[in-house]
Amino acid sequence: MELTERHVEGLKELLYKMADDLLILGHRNSEWTGLGPVLEEDIAFSSMAQDKLGQSLALFELLHELGENIPDIVAFTRNDKQFHNCHLVEMPIGEYDFSLARHFFYDHADALRFAMLENSSFEGLSMISRKFKGEIKYHTMHADVWMKQLSYGTEESKARMQSAINEVFPLALGIFEEGEFEAELIEAGIFIGEAALKAQWLEKVGAELHKYGYTLPDPEAVIPALGGRKGFHTEHLQPLLNEMSEVFQIDPGADW
Amino acid sequence: MIIKSLDPRITRAGIDDESKDGIQQPMDQWHTYEVFQQKKRGTHHVHVGSLHAPDAELAVLFAKEQYARRGQCVNLWVVKTSDVFATEYEDEDIFTTTPEKKYREPEVYKVMDRIQAFKAKQNS
Fold first, then answer.
1. A19, A99, A233, B23: which has the fewest C-beta neighbours closer than 10 Å?
2. Which residues from B are below 8 Å from A138, CB to CB?
3. Is the pLDDT of residue A94 over 60?
4. Collapsed DSSP state (helix, strand, coil) of residue A27
5. pTM of the model
6. Cross-chain Cβ contact B13/A142 below 8 Å
7. Percent of chain A with pLDDT over 90
8. In chain B, which residue's Cα lies nearest the Cα of A140?
9. Mutate which of A28, A29, A38, A40 to test chain B, going by most B C-beta atoms within 10 A?
């Protein structure tokens, strides 16, 4: 079908929130580099953080094709009000249990979103969704295995993971904050919408956690962390942006 | 003293440089695994190194990032190092072959002439 201006706006909104989530979480997770609990895990976690930056770059490139500025400018020169990521990804890394719970909730949402987008009518998105499929599958495998390991570890490890799950869950619900153009995206076959994604995700993470003896909090009983998609952020995002763009800002025109 | 580094992540972590904790703790719950990588289906798995992991399931996940992130790979094996039964280096001499082993190789037997002669005789 012929895309109207509102369809394109909706597409951009979708691409921006996905790219921003990946960029910010990729940066956050990279903060574990050199500090991970053991060398092997440090390598794996850092590696996945890099994957996320790569995925965000691919999305920023699609945005550039739709007329937005080049990826470096978009990534390094906006302030927090101009970012569309959810609060989940901007929170500090905390203890490793927090980072693992975030990894689990986010990456399952990401895997389901990209799986849906394999059938997107927007070819650029369906192409990169197929390209990143294996990478994202590994991320969810890694997250699941840690959930399992720590459930069957000690009483303390299981209790800490359950408490991290409880802490992260309301933040994770913020992933599915609806935008202005949900109806247009669904109508044009670009994306099946946040509500449908959230339903699939709740089923998936619920089943996965149940398998390892954890409890998924009741989504109706918590307050989702909303606002991120509209540019309202916690006090943690701007300092992250300052740090992330520090080198770029020294000489924005530099050739690398 | 908390370590102050040019890397803000290190500073943020609040690591005490007096602390010897962690350095002297043995990794008594983690095993060493040997990693074998297969580059193409049908080819042999080749030993590429080792790593620490609490069990085989995590060992293959770690192996993927540590040994198969670059270059081709279609399959990985991990084997607990303690399950590998090895020869002793002091027995290295069992591998020194006697210098003259020609008698084991078929090409040293010059029998083709006699086979051809036999066949010719049969056919005549």
1. B23
2. 61, 64
3. yes
4. helix
5. 0.85
6. no
7. 92
8. B61
9. A40
Predicted ipTM of the assembly:
0.84
CB proximity A135 to B under 8 Å:
no
Token pair 């080198």 is found at A247
Using an 8 Å CB-CB cutoff, list chain B residues near A31. Answer: 9, 12
Q: Decide: B80 and B33 in contact? Cβ < 8 Å.
A: yes
- Give the pair of three-digit tokens for residue B74: 């279609």
Summarize pLDDT for B31-56 with one digit per residue, the tens.
999 999 999 999 999 999 999 999 99
The domain covering B27-89 belongs, at the CATH homologous superfamily level, to: Phenylacetic acid degradation B (3.10.20.520)
Instruction: Please indicate whether, in this complex, the C-beta atoms of B9 and A33 are within 8 angstroms of each other.
Output: yes
**Which two structure tokens, joined as six digits, stand for A181?**
């153009």
- Per-domain boundaries in chain B: 27-89
CA distance A60 to chain B (A): 24
Assign residue B52 a region (left: φ > 0; alpha: ψ between -120 and 50; beta: otherwise): beta
With a cut of 90, say whether residue A77 has pLDDT above it. Answer: yes
Q: Domains, chain A, ranges and CATH? A: 5-246 (1.20.1260.10)
CB A186 within 8 A of CB A193: yes
pLDDT(B93) > 90: no
Confidence of residue B27 (pLDDT cuts 50, 70, 90): low
Q: In angstroms, rounded to a whole number, what is the distance separating the alpha carbons of residues A125 and A120?
A: 7
Across the interface, which of A34, A40, A243 has its CB nearest the CB of B62?
Answer: A40
Across the interface, do B61 and A44 touch by the CB < 8 Å criterion?
A: yes
Give the residue, A152 or B9, on which the prediction is more confident.
A152
